């Protein structure tokens, strides 16, 4: 049975991807900073056929990252690490000339440094997998210059490049940076307060695409979910 760790798994794309993998028979470890939200997600996800472990904590905390890796070890190993947890940063989203540096430091801590640190912690388990994979969730804001998106977008650009270099340095490991596109999530609503985002697809529509990409012999690289065909 394949094992995945998905950060930020209590809502949005993380929860939807956890549900999709569980239905496909995976064992999944999820986390979130909000214990109550995580408990609610756990109750809903445990209806699926796979095994689920939910751990409350912050991905920026080294002890929590260690606990995620140990939870995967307890399930038999690690085949897929999904760095999905991220923070939007200051809202309303400020221009770079006014961006609070302490807030930007937190954005980079969560969106760049924590994913790399978790990858480093997980590498011993991934090396033992028959098919080791890392999926880093990125954004179109990493390649497009949108006003107000300098903090979040530059952090995702760093994650993109980190993913590409990791794939070169560790050729035994398949590494993807995946742009899921706009979705009807709380984070997207926070980015556009007061705007109607009901025309965006639900995360449940995107999750099968990511799961299919992970289950197929997809080469390392950057992908847009809209260009990947879902399938089982």
Q: Rg to the nearest angstrom? A: 17 Å
**Percent of sequence in beta strands:** 5-15%
Coarse shape:
globular
Structural class: alpha/beta
Distance between the termini: 16 Å
Q: How confident overall, as mean pLDDT?
A: 93
Discrete helix count: 7
What is CATH's topology name? Rossmann fold
As a percent range, the share of helical residues equals 40-55%
Residue runs with pLDDT of under 50 for 5 or more positions: none
> Architecture, according to CATH?
3-Layer(aba) Sandwich
**Elements, N to C (H/E):** EHEHEHEHEHEHHE
Number of separate structural domains = 1
Account of the protein in words:
This protein has one domain: Rossmann fold (3-Layer(aba) Sandwich), CATH 3.40.50.720. The two termini are 16 Å apart. Helix content is 44%, strand content 15%. The chain has a seven-stranded parallel sheet, with helices on both faces. It has seven helices and seven strands, in the order βαβαβαβαβαβααβ. The radius of gyration is 17 Å and the shape is globular. The protein has helices at 12-23, 35-45, 62-74, 101-127, 150-169, 186-191, 203-215, and strands spanning 3-6, 27-32, 52-56, 80-83, 133-137, 174-179, 221-224. It is an alpha/beta fold and 232 residues long. The longest helix has 27 residues, at 101-127.
């Amino acid at each position: 049975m394949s094992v995945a760790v998905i950060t930020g798994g209590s809502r949005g794309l993380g929860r939807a991807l956890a549900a999709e993998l569980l239905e496909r028979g995976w064992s999944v470890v999820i986390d979130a900073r909000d214990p109550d939200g995580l408990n609610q997600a756990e109750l809903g996800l445990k209806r699926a056929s796979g095994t689920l472990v939910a751990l409350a904590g912050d991905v920026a905390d080294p002890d929590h990252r260690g606990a995620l890796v140990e939870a995967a070890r307890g399930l038999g190993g690690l085949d897929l690490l999904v760095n999905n947890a991220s923070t939007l940063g200051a809202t309303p989203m400020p221009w770079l000339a006014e961006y609070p540096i302490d807030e930007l430091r937190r954005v980079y801590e969560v969106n760049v440094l924590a994913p790399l640190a978790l990858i480093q912690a997980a590498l011993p388990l991934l090396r033992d997998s028959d098919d080791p994979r890392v999926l880093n969730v990125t954004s179109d804001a990493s390649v497009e210059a949108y006003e107000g998106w300098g903090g979040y977008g530059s952090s995702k650009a760093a994650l993109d490049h980190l993913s590409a270099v990791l794939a070169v340095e560790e050729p035994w490991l398949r590494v993807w940076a995946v742009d899921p596109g706009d979705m009807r999530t709380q984070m997207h609503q926070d980015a556009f307060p007061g705007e109607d985002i009901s025309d965006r697809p639900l995360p449940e529509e995107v999750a099968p695409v990511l799961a299919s990409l992970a289950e197929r012999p997809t080469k390392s690289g950057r992908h847009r979910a809209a260009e990947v065909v879902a399938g089982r």
